[in-house]
Specification:
This protein is mainly α. The chain has helices at residues 2-20, 70-104, 111-127, 152-168, 174-193; strands at 58-65, 132-138, 144-151. It has a single domain (50-193), classed as Thiol Ester Dehydrase, Chain A (Roll), CATH 3.10.129. The N and C termini lie far apart (82 Å).
Length: 195
């Protein structure tokens, strides 16, 4: 009986010891992003293909094209990226002009809202002359990704004549002049925060 009791105590002690032993816990491993290889086996997919790129003084957009050959694919991807840049510029200009019209316009001064569409398109089109292609990447299926950029300074430079044209659509008044100043400041601030 003593033997049995000793064996039982030792077994319980051994069980208690293994229960108290610290087990090494594996730290959670962040799932790795699969490596996507481009055409001809190199290089791997750049981050800008799946991630928005932004800097203080530049705006970036990507485009994708898969046409009959590489040159046509590059052209198609570049057009898509430029269209995205034009849409972004147009949206930024419209937002500022609408705010301006709400501040300065009343009654018959609302004609500036009609001019807004034309002006935002003019700014976008004039600004696109400053678009540069930063990088090109060809995926395994021969689809082409293009990263294009535009300096924010180009947009600001082309916005000045457009803002003057909107301001001219209003009857001269102190309110319109104050709102015009606000519009220019708002546009500058919007561009700083919208990258």
């Amino acid at each position: 009986m003593k033997k049995m009791l000793t064996i039982l105590v030792l077994a319980m002690l051994a069980l208690a010891m293994t229960g108290c032993a610290t087990a090494k816990v594996a730290e959670p491993v962040e799932p790795a992003r699969p490596v996507i290889i481009g055409a001809e086996g190199i290089p791997p997919q750049p981050e800008w293909v799946y991630k928005t790129v932004s800097t203080q003084d530049m705006h970036f957009e990507t485009g994708y094209g898969k046409m009959s050959d590489k040159q046509n694919s590059i052209k198609r991807a570049t057009v898509e990226a430029k269209n995205k840049i034009a849409a972004w510029i147009s949206t930024q200009v419209k937002e500022v002009v609408v705010t301006y019209v709400n501040d300065a316009g009343s009654g018959d001064n609302r004609q500036a809202l009609d001019a807004m569409e034309v002006i935002s398109q003019q700014v976008a089109e004039a600004t696109l002359s400053g678009v540069s292609t930063e990088e090109v990447w060809v995926d395994a299926e021969n689809g082409v990704w293009v990263l294009c950029s535009i300096p924010i300074a180009n947009i600001e430079q082309n916005f000045e004549p457009a803002s003057e044209a909107v301001a001219e659509a209003f009857v001269e008044s102190e309110a319109a002049e104050a709102a015009n100043t606000k519009m220019k400041e708002a546009f500058a601030n919007l561009l700083k925060g919208a990258n």
